[in-house]
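protien #1 (seq + structre)
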Amino acid sequence: MTIFSKIIAREIPADIVYEDDHVLAFRDINPQAPLHLLIIPKQEIPTINDIEEQHEVLIGKLFTAAARIAKAEGIAEDGYRVVMNCNQHGGQTVYHVHLHMLGGKPMGWPPYTEHMKQG
C-alpha cells in the first residue's frame, strides 16, 4: 500500500482539491511551482509500464479531471504543465501512477528565458 492509497483511504490527511469516483487530486506538500497538485487514480497502478488496455479509460479520466481542476484553480487560460514520471530514472518516488500539475508561472521547456520572450 502506497502513501497515495493511504490518502485515498483517509488514513493520511491531504489538502484535497478534487474527487470523483475514479480520481483524487491534492496539493503537493513540497510544491515546485505556485500551484503544484498531484492527480491520482483511485486504483493503484504502480508505474506507466503497468498501464494496460483495461486502464485506458481510467488514465483518460486523469486528464479530464486535470482540465476541470485547471479551470477551477484559474490556470487553464494561461496554461500549465502535467507530468507523469516513470521509475527511478524518470524521477518517480511513489509507485502509484500520478500526474503532477504545475502552474501559476511560465513553465516553458527548455526553461523560460529572455530570448524566448522576443520570438
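ok now protien #2
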Amino acid sequence: MDCLFCKIIEREIPADIVYEDDDVLAFNDINPQAPTHMLIVPKQHIATLNDIEEGDLALVGRLQFTAAKLAEEKGFAEEGYRVVMNCNDQGGQTVFHIHMHLMGGRRFTWPAG
C-alpha cells in the first residue's frame, strides 16, 4: 500500500508523534495552520469518510475522544479549538486515509481561515 499515513503508522516514515494507543496515532502536522496542529489517524486504513462502515463507528468516535483529550492536555480545551475532517478532492482531502485535524492556540474565524 502506498499510503503516507500507513507508512507513518508502520514507522517507515518519521513523524513527530504526540499520542498513540492500540487504535489511534496522533502527530504534529508538518505544515501547521495554528500554533498547535495535529493529525489524528486511525491505525486501520479507511480511505475517506464515505468508506466508513457501521463497524467503524467506535473507531471514528475514538478519533474525536482523542482530539478532546489532546486539546485538554495542550491547555486550549476551555478556550476552544477546531477539529476538521476533509473528504475527497473538492473537500480538501490530500491523503486518502481518514484523519482529523486538531488545531488550537489561536482564535479561528468563519469561514475557515
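The two ends are 33 Å apart (CA to CA).
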